[in-house]
Every structure is written in C-alpha cells, then in structure tokens.
Amino acid sequence: MTKPFSILIPVYNEAEIITENTEVLLDYLSQDYERFEIILGSNGSVDGTIMKGNDLENRFSQVRFFHIHRKGVGRAFKRGVRMAKYDRIISLDMDLSIDMGFIHRALELMDSGYDVVVGSKKMGHQRRTMFRRLGSSLFIFCARRLLDISFEDYSIAAKCYRRSLLLQYVDRIDHGTSYVIEILYMASRNGMKLIEIPVRCEDLRASKFNIIHEGVYRFTNLFRFWYGQKCNPR
Ligand SMILES: Nc1nc2c(ncn2[C@@H]2O[C@H](COP(=O)(O)OP(=O)(O)OP(=O)(O)O)[C@@H](O)[C@H]2O)c(=O)[nH]1
Ligand SMILES: [Mg+2]
User: Beta-strand (E) ranges in the chain?
Assistant: First the structure.
C-alpha cells in the first residue's frame, strides 16, 4: 500500500475555483490512493474563499482548511507544514496549472529514497506568458551564479518535500516565496537527496501575486541570502 501523503495548497482569493478544483483533485487522488489529506491554507483572502474552504472541510474528511489574517504565502506554508499529518508534503497551486502526474512520479521517487523532488517547468513544457518566463529565467540565472545551485524552478508549486526535512528549516521561513530556494539550497548543501524532474504547466491566468512586488522581493531576498551565506554559511 502507498504511504500516505499531504498535499498543501496556499490560497488567496480563490473563491472562483477553490471548490471545483479541490473536487477535481479529490477525484483524481481517490482513484489511486487511500490515505492522503489536502490542506488548503488561506491568508489575507477577502472574497468567499474562507466560507468555501470551511465548507470543503465539512464535506470531505480528507480536506483541512485554515485561514490566517495576514497575507503572505510563506506564513501559510509554515503553518501547513506544522499541521501536516504525513511525512511527504506535495505543494500545488489552486489553479492546478501543473499536470497532476507529478504527484505520482514524485511519490515514487520519495519511496526510492529522495528527500525532495523539484518539478521543473523549464525542463518540461510550459504555456506561460513570455514576461513570466523571462522573469523566471533571470532569477534562475542569478541563483546559479550567486549560490552555485542549478535547479531550474523555484516557484512554490510542484515540489515534494519530506516533512522531517522541512521542520528543520521551518523557523527560517519568512512571509513570502523565498523559502523554496532557501530550502533547496540548504537541503542540497546538507547532503539531502534532491532530484529535479520535468513538469507540464499551463498557466495563462493573471497571477495572484503582484508581479512587481514579487520580483523586487525575490531578487532582494536572493542577494540577502547569498550575502548571509557568504558571511555565515550554514
Ligand atoms: N495563502 C496564500 N496563498 C497565496 C498568496 N498569494 C498567492 N497565493 C496562492 O499561491 C498559488 C500560486 O498563485 P498563482 O497566482 O497561481 O501564482 P503564479 O504567478 O502562477 O506563480 P508561478 O508558478 O511562480 O508563475 C495559488 O494557489 C494562490 O492562491 C498568499 O498571500 N497567501
Ligand atoms: Mg498560477
């Protein structure tokens, strides 16, 4: 029997899709797996996300929902990691823009001994706007030059982590998305087994992030992290 796992989805103002996409995901997972949970973690949402998230939790035993007042995906990730019941945590986006075959492949790789599976849109196939692809490529290039790590995807979705590994780093996670690159960096430096695999992604909807703020935040944090590692490597 497959070992159980937790799916963690951060949600921000996703009232339009949270119910339908959670049901799609539940159907998909129920075909192959018996024991899993889907944690939907909202923060800052001001639309019907909270009501719909609570409703999903009441209707489906596998769904857990929480809401934190302050916005910031890192805060939701941190809380989700702490409350997850299982040792394998897969992060997805609510728009299910990554092909769900990733779940199956990631779990198999975890069974064969990996600690982190990184889904890479660049290695796979992506339908995203040119602007977003260029932004990601620039970030990946800078990360490689500064930190000497060569993953091709630092977005929050399509990653699978061993929870015990995340718990070692969880206190360092800030409010934003930088936890992905920081965890991948530290896990690879500390001898964990990481693997990157291609994923398909179709994501043409407007981002829930403010792209300018997100860009400034990500690059600033990358330089801060690089400087911190240079002065005080971990
Ligand atoms: N909890 C929480 N979730 C958020 C927040 N901001 C965005 N999200 C969620 O994060 C997920 C990713 O958001 P998207 O808008 O799809 O991100 P994207 O721009 O496509 O991201 P990339 O894959 O990096 O291009 C979605 O499930 C959002 O609802 C936030 O502040 N808090
Ligand atoms: Mg998206």
Answer: 5-11, 36-43, 63-68, 88-91, 116-127, 159-162, 194-202
CA of 133 to the centre of ligand 2 (A): 12
Q: pLDDT (tens digit, 9 = 90+) per residue, 30-55? A: 999 999 999 999 999 999 999 999 99
CB 127 within 8 A of CB 206: no
Cα separation, 106 vs 196, in Å, equals 10
Query: Model-level pTM greater than 0.90?
Result: yes
pLDDT of residue 234: 65
21, 50, 64, 93, best to mutate for ligand 1 pocket (most atoms within 8 Å of CB): 93
Total number of domains in the chain: 1
Which CATH number belongs to the domain containing residue 71 in this structure?
A: 3.90.550.10
- Ligand 1 atom 31 nearest Cα: 72
Look up residue 129 and give its DSSP letter: -
Contacts of 168 (CB under 8 A, 6+ apart): none
Q: Which domain holds residue 186?
A: 5-231
Confidence at 150, pLDDT banded by 50, 70, 90: confident
Separation of alpha carbons 159 and 165, rounded Å: 13
Q: Give the residue whose CA is nearest to atom 11 of ligand 1.
A: 93
**Which residues are paired to 120 by β-bridges?**
198
Minimal-distance CA residue to ligand 1 atom 32: 73
